[in-house]
What we know:
The protein is about 30% helix and about 25% strand. The chain contains seven helices and ten strands. By secondary structure, it is an alpha/beta fold. A hairpin with a 2-residue loop joins strand 1 and strand 2.
Amino acid sequence: xxxxxxxxxxxxxxxxxxxxxxxxxxxxxxxxxxxxxxxxxxxxxxxxxxxxxxxxxxxxxxxxxxxxxxxxxxxxxxxxxxxxxxxxxxxxxxxxxxxxxxxxxxxxxxxxxxxxxxxxxxxxxxxxxxxxxxxxxxxxxxxxxxxxxxxxxxxxxxxxxxxxxxxxxxxxxxxxxxxxxxxxxxxxxxxxxxxxxxxxxxxxxxxxxxxxxxxxxxxxxxxxxxxxxxxx
Length: 232
């Protein structure tokens, strides 16, 4: 799905990403984990084609990142919920769906996918934090995206809501979607099929949670991360 080779990104004269080389397979939940300031958002913006890169190459579905042909195949959700507060849930989805020539699901089906059918006529401004997060996710499901890029979608949510969202992510992966999900909460690594650990703009390690635990001999992902830092 995604291939990055020797990727370098500089912003405001700061070297953010350093010679990143990585791959993301189709149909998986790829967790992008690392502390704040490690370069997660910059990497996601680069893959989405929204970030100017200094050198290296990014290909998505074997096309250069940012290509016009990818616009309907990539959905990107930022840390701030991109919804209209003065519209209802169903109106939000209908509006975003109207921007596409083809939608693989109806707005009603999309709301059902994110468990917001009962909130269809509720104004977005009156939603709870978890409901608003699910509505923001719903806006990425319009059209027919193959890659969902989700920047810290569970930040600020309580444990119950995080569990609900991860169940939804797994459901989407089972439907054939590829998800790139960033987080600075190491325990969320257990919900991913594969992981990329970032630190200071560099790939510290990539592999499945079980493979990284076996490599370090640690069971908790926090300890795995610390061990890999010391190893590096």
